[in-house]
Specification:
alpha/beta
Length: about 400
Amino acid sequence: MRLRPTRRGTGLLVLGAAVATTGTALGSTDLLTLGTLPVLLVLLGLLGVGLVDPGRGRGLRTRRTVRPDPVHAGRSADVHVEVALTRGASRARLADLRLREQAAVELSGGRPLRATVSREPRAVRLRYPVQATRRGRWALGPLVVTRTDPFGVAQVRATLGERETLTVWPAVADLPAPRELLVAEPERSVVGARSPAADDAALRDYRVGDDLRRVHWPSSARRGELVVRSDERAGMRPVTVLLDQPPAGEDLEWSISLAASVALAMHGAGHPTHLLTGTAVDDPRATRVEAPGRQQLLEATVDLTGHDTAAAARDALLAEIRGLDETDGGSGLVVAVLGPQGTDGRAALAGVSQTRPGWAVVRGTEDPAADATATALRRAGWRVVQADPGDDLAGTWWRLTGGAA
């Protein structure tokens, strides 16, 4: 709570003190009385607004809703805030309140929020839009409320509600999944084998011959018998999207948007999709998404901050490559969004294409290191295009897939 005189109240205090001082110096009782009156008015105003301080007690309840939540970067969301009286609270606690909402600069653009206000006898509602400019988790609230006394000489300011967080997903493009990926692997379909998949929607009893890697241990422990995850996407080629994170900045945001767009396209086409974000396994921000839905794929990208050094990026990428066999069983498609790679990275990626198809977008069209990376991957059997961060996502994907849809 912040209780203080307004500018008018401060002026009256100064004027009253000056008149009272003059009356004391001249020995004039009338001047002394006249100077005391504005001071008393301000004190009474402070006492009055203090008694109905909106931040004191449990008289007011605040509720904030955001739609949509989460929201994609570059899009807007509507925020609704309701301040209502609790049961038994006097309407005086709600009268003459001025409300001001707070939001992170990534949502407000650094400008004051302009809200539409509607008042009812026992509630005040605000509605305003926010523009999500950057991927991340950004603060909304708490609500700042101000009440001024009827004479305008004193005011109290307090906060209501809690600070909440709006999740902003990366900007994504609607990409088509090439038809050639939608068919089952012929040699596996003939024998009735199932393609490895981690997108498992059901559990079934364990049968002799089932892969032990598919045992769902938490459920097995609860039931007292082995159960395995059943593959509801049999015959669909697994797809792993591999993201090599550059340092924080526009390059990172573009790379994340492209990787997320590809993952969503593959998932939407029915493929078991994995997203490996190139975050070191021992990093507390580590994100390895397996068997996700659309929301899990996008959530995995929200907290990525990029790698500070080339060595950290290299180590994280090599760690993800070493775990590919466990992720897709050695037979899935790998779609990589990469920066220029050194000798170790190029060698590891070349090994990937020996057992599975690989597609790659290499950042940089005028960088000799990017050219060398693209050349090495093509020689190893990868399908490769080079693109500059900021290039159109759909156009980059079209060039990589050869326009297939």
